[in-house]
Amino acid sequence: MIKETPAVEKYTIKLHTFADADWTGDPDDRRSTTAYVIFLDSTPISWSLKKQHTVARSTTEAEYHAIASSAAELNWIGHLMSELQIQVPSTPVIYCDNVGATYVCANPIFHSRMKHVAIDFFFVQDQVARQQLRISHVHTNDQLADSLTKPLAQRQFLDHRSKIGILDGSSILRGHVSSRDSIGHK
Predict the structure, then answer these.
(1) Residue 181 pLDDT more than 60?
(2) Where on the tree of life does the source sit, at the highest rank (predicted)?
(3) Could you tell me where the DSSP H helices lie in 21-177?
């Protein structure tokens, strides 16, 4: 930290992510797609869109895999920030729009119907139990990772794109390149 800058020490950093999955989204092999966007305050710092390795038996299972993937990335980011001596005083939050998946995360009892996802289950449970992670439900309309897993209406897509902080690429670069002669170089 820069000690000469008192405002830096007073500022509270928050990590949060939106995790989502499209259950059986691939029509050929019925595997789901996991997506997440991780924010440091309001800035996206990591995101992923990846097909899951196995076929999920339910939407809850597909969403749970998305939670576990984003939890692993949050864990890595937490270690990186620690190495850089940047403290994150609040517990990172994963927002998920699947009530069943958030319930499984909040309930420390292992569910027999989820035994085939045991590694993800125990990884997330360990993070939650040690208060290194919190899982929170978010309404489907506010699930920013939806724009990575499914087609959205134009208005909702543009709203999500704006909230993630992605700019319209056509308006970013304007102008022209001058030749060396026109700027005084010969």
Answers:
(1) no
(2) Eukaryota
(3) 59-83, 99-106, 118-129, 146-149, 154-164
